[in-house]
Structure prediction request, 387 residues.
Amino acid sequence: MMGEDQICKRQKKNKTSFEELADDSKLDVFRRLDIKDRGKLKCVSKTWRILISASCFPTYAGLLYKREHINKPLGEISKIPFDNSTRRLGFSTTFSLKSVRLGFELTRELQESCNGLLLLCHSVSHYETILEVADSHNSPKRKTIYTYYVVNPLTKQFLKIAKPKRNSASYKYAALAYHPAESSHFKIVRFRVNHLDIYSSQTEKWASFRIQLKENVLKAKWVKQSVYFQGSIYRLSMSHVLRFVDKNHCWVVQEIEIPHTAKIVNEAACIGLSNGQIKFASSDGLNLKIWELNKQHGWSLKCSFPCNKISKIYISPKPLTFHPYLDSIIVGYVDSIDMIMNLTSIEYSDEKMINYTKPIFQSIYSRWGKDHKFVFPLFHCEAPFCI
Prediction:
């Protein structure tokens, strides 16, 4: 039989300290910790601080776009991968969430993308029997129920969230506020005229906040495009960029006028986050201009160049989204002969265009004007959110 001393020596030999683990194993442990615990552990050593920061930082994986079919408009979501070594977008492939088992197809449901999470809004219509007093008979009335889904396509984690109230407005567009380095919880921000409906995964409840907007802001066209950055939601309209921020558990709005020299034709404008800065781009059909929002919430012109510098056969350039880490913008161009839209990536520097890629995909043009937001940045995030 094995003696006690031999057993103790064998047990000590089999024990592995945390420092002896591979970096991948350490990252997996750090991702499972609460945000407060990760903050404390950053103080242990420089190595731990670097690893913990890496475990929380989403990586850019490319683009998602709604691809059109003649018989099924916007019926397919495709993915365009990004190659970090060549700094190029690759060939498109079909993107599916079937492995997540949501119970419905990913078609028109995609609303927003934020640091590794996707926000979907699924609607189900049914008929309810309602008694009409005047006619003294039962009358079926069509009801539509909206449900939000927050999904991490990499970890297959998802959460189903009911709309604030069953009888609330049917408007379903909302923004997503999430960054794993700030918190393991997320917020859904739903816009209603002079109100915001906010869902917090921490409280698991909806809360409504009244906001004050000027008359000209209310009348302007609001674009279904939002960006989350350092605790604030930025949403684009045709007159302003609206900054929604949580101050002491009370949401307020800041109205930032778009640059006075920005001439927008056919809603050809977008906002995005690039290199830690909020960027704004617009096109008047002749020139494409890109601005950067400074700390004083004023705009600085970053780049401007003629649209025909890319190609003389393309018209109606439409800026769509920015690359998060490069001075690059995704633009949709329409072929003036065949009326086919092409997606193009343009690299720029101060005051000039450096390079642009060949068209990534083609699609029938007619539908895109009805769905402004059809290109979404895709991130991979291995850190699970709290549920």
